[in-house]
Amino acid sequence: MRAMQVNNSGQGPALIEIDLPQPAPGEGELLISVRAVGVTHTELNWYPTTYAKDGTPRKSAVPGHEFSGVVAALGKNTKGFEVGQEIYGMSDWFVDGATAEFCLTQPQSIAPKPVTLTHEAAATVPIGALTAWQGLFEHAKLQPGERVLVQGGAGAVGLFAVQLAHLHGAHVIATASQKNLRLVAELGADEVIDYKASRFEDRIGKVDVVFDTAGGDTLDRSWSTLNAGGRLVTIVSGLPDNAEQRVKDAFFIVEPSQKQLLEVASLLDSGALKTYVNAVVPFEEASDAYSGAVRAKLGYGKVVIVIPGN
Hints:
Elements: E1 2-6, E2 15-19, E3 30-38, H1 47-50, E4 66-74, E5 86-90, E6 102-105, E7 110-112, H2 119-122, H3 126-139, E8 147-151, H4 158-167, E9 171-176, H5 181-186, E10 191-194, E11 207-212, H6 216-222, E12 226-234, H7 245-250, H8 258-270, E13 277-282, H9 286-291, E14 302-306
Parallel strand pairs: 8-9, 8-11, 9-10, 11-12, 13-14
Antiparallel strand pairs: 1-2, 3-4, 3-6, 3-14, 4-5, 5-7
Helix pairs in contact: 3-4
């Protein structure tokens, strides 16, 4: 099968095309014929891309850990899905991803694809929507009526965080660039702040929850906005070793969840939740998609790679 692998040489393109053996599903696994894969630009620099779970080096990883496709084969004792069924989902960070004609996954990591979405649109959803869901509801324990600040409301995760918090009955405040203020307001933010024009901490008063997607100085300044009992979560990795314990405690990494994917699909099909395809990139230009060389179509949402021949 055709696949894209991380170029470990340090020279040339970020990804190189290679022919790999088509994987066979083991017990409890599914083989997916990939139709589209979402791009997370920072993935190539993450620890799981170059190391296995046991800490040993991992070379030539296949990136792309959110995808939409069709079940091509079932391993022994794999239940809940049928060959030919359209699905979407995400895979474990430490295994090869879906920037290939086929990938392996497990039933608990996928769900039936939202029927109203194309494969390209469905591939933009899993990581962003699950990150927002888990950050708001599992880690921050957001309650209806609480005030939540979403840092980066037009980002790939922030878009979902704004919508899900609004649907949950929270008062949503979000930061965004000037060009995206209207979009974020339309998605449900009660207040939208141009982060370049003013300091958010001077505008919003106290909040119950901060959902941080920006890190750095923005994260540092966000602590002062929390009221007594306020909670902060951040998804920005690469924290320094000397980071405060409260910052380390606030960081989390998204995990696959079939249950949540089912609920997200229902919201998408009902029209209550929206997703956006920033740009569609052919397989041959996958390296440009990861390097940021692809010209964005919208300026928000996710870039998607279309897999050939599937």
